[in-house]
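Before we proceed, please read the two lines closing this message. Tell me what the token row says about the fold.
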Amino acid sequence: MINYILRRLGYGFLVLVGVNLLTFVLFFAVNTPDDMARMNIGGKRVSQDAIEKWKVERGYNKPLLWNDAQPGLEKATKTIFFERSAQLFALEFGASDSGRDIAYELKKRMGPSLALALPTFLLGIFVVVVFALMMVFFRNTYLEFWSFTLAVFLMSVSALFYILLGQFLFSKLLRLVPISGFSNGLDMVVFLALPVLIGLVDRLGGQALFYRTMFLEEIGKDYVRTARSKGLSEPVVLFRHVLRNALLPILTSTVAVLPLLFMGALIMESFFGIPGLGSYTLDAIAAQDFAVVRSMVFVGSALYILGLILTDISYTIADPRIRLG
């Protein structure tokens, strides 16, 4: 098991190195340090002295990959790549192009993102699985037909529509919750109730249909017929046997989205004014803060790779035959 995990970690590290290199190349192939200085200072008629001053203050005056003017190892370390990309592996994020400490911003904004994502994630798993099992339990009935129709409708509508409808209905008309904002303590529940509800509705349709198809495949297998022949009730068969044997696809769709718990929901945080990592990323894109964007791409890639590794590990726990194979 330890060797299996070490192999997965090694593969993940190589993928992360490749993503980091590709991100660096794409950023500086499209924008030179002079272009980045002009966009951050503002305007095309910026003096060259102002550009050079901006580059010196933020370390963009150094060569990209190799510094011939420096001795020894400093030829590789006194470069933009080492200071702005390679040090990300040591979690040294440095300062943003606006001069703020990126690591401090990440720590400060991780809490609001988790406060939104955790309830949505945990409640979503429970609601989706129960809804899919109920569709299977009432299969070939009108209840299944209307549940299936509802799931298709929910899946076909954009999340942006749910956000606008929820804000208009629950905030403008009924005035049950604030339209946007965030607060710590118990007041947090009031601000997060609507985003969590919209998150549940948005993921209910597609995932419920996926689980329904998976459960329908399971109920036709021999072990289900054996369980029924022993006199077990249909709810016991579904919730105890079918659900347990369908763990692998469920793990695929749940563990792999764990990075979203830390990265936050981009659209949801922006529309509801939640100061999380998602809104931080969008604000950096709007402000053309390339240092923040590169850092968030790195963090997102690392967390996504970690999620895939956790998925592989959970597979081996749920079904050891995978590891042995």
Remarks:
- The mean pLDDT is 86.
- DSSP finds 17 helices and no strands in the chain.
- The CA atoms of residues 155 and 206 lie 5 Å apart.
